């Protein structure tokens, strides 16, 4: 019918008008201005991975990505050296608007370790404790009659001192009692085993 043909002919024009109206009202990724018209959505960019970079490197990478270096915060870290980035806020990989300020969380090194009181502990136990704290250990030995052989006499620095990972502790361990009975003198005196005995040829000075 003539009327039906005329209606069908108008369909493409009606569809085009609908598309135009949709664009003018902001459908399609933008947003409308208060006074009318159309405004593009802000461009977005992913926060770059900055872990283990220095502060200077991280700031340069942010600026290159179109982002703004933000505030700095510090935390102790057992794995990231002092002065290097631990993480960012927002985190790396998150998409944010261009120009967004990104906070850098920076390592201030390992948390200080407090030397425990190890006096009287067995050598191997004391070594294990200090090494678990990430401290280097230098073992020294001394003669003493006050501390049993193989146990800790003292530490340097003293117990309660704070050190950072990698610093050294001197662990002094008892070798044996300082004085023993001299068998060559028939038990008449005590022998200091760190000296030569002029009286009986033993291993220390014989006191009678």
Structure description:
By secondary structure, the protein is α+β, with helices and mostly antiparallel strands. It has three domains: 64 residues, Trypsin Inhibitor V, Chain A (2-Layer Sandwich); 65 residues, Trypsin Inhibitor V, Chain A; 31 residues, no CATH class. It has three helices and 15 strands. The protein has a three-stranded mixed sheet with strand order 4-7-5, covered by helices on one side. A hairpin with a 5-residue loop joins strand 1 and strand 2. The N and C termini lie far apart (142 Å).
Poorly predicted segments: none
Shape field:
rod-shaped
CATH C-level of the largest domain: Alpha Beta
What CATH architecture of the largest domain would you give? Answer: 2-Layer Sandwich
> How many strands?
15
SSE ordering: HEEEHEEEEEHEEEEEEE
Judged by helices, strands and strand pairing, the structural class is alpha+beta
Instruction: Please give the radius of gyration in angstroms.
Output: 39 Å
Quaternary structure: single chain
Distance between the termini: 142 Å
The main sheet comes to: 3 strands, mixed
Give the total of domains: 3
Average pLDDT, all residues:
79
Strand order of the largest sheet: 4-7-5
Strand content: 25-35%
Helical amount: 10-25%
